[in-house]
Write a structure and sequence with these properties.
By secondary structure, the protein is α+β, with helices and mostly antiparallel strands. The chain has one helix at residues 2-22; strands at 86-93, 96-102, 108-111, 116-117, 120-125, 129-135, 145-151, 158-159.
Length: 160
Amino acid sequence: MTRALRFIAVTCLFVTAPAVFAQQPPAQAPAQAPPQPVEATPAPAFTYDSGGRRDPFISLLGRGVDGRSATSRPLGLPGVLIDEVMVKGIVRDARGLYALVQGPDRKIHTLRAGDRLMDGTVKTVTPGEVVFSQDVNDPLLLQKQREIRKSLRPGEESHG
């Protein structure tokens, strides 16, 4: 029994001791003089000098693209690029061959030799393919036109 009584006394001592020390007022810190106000010096005006470097916030993907944007394109075939057309069929009539092509607007258009698109003309229409003459706007190339063949069967197209 005395062991239990001792255990309870020691436990009470440990539990109440922090409460006793918490009631004592903290020691006074030595009084300090109030801090002197610091005068704010104006920051120098910032000017950015690029030093010939490019602006990192301008997209690199739009560089070198043909200046004719989608908003300034004419309606119909004159506003369609050669890369955007898909040959859907080739038809023969009394005047010769003509091609049925699908544009980016998913409409079917007819093309004959000599018809003009936004970036080239139709050179010839044969029973198996349409041959385009595409205008090249690259100042580094000597060729100003290149021949593009679009086949009636996908996978057989060639860029020349």
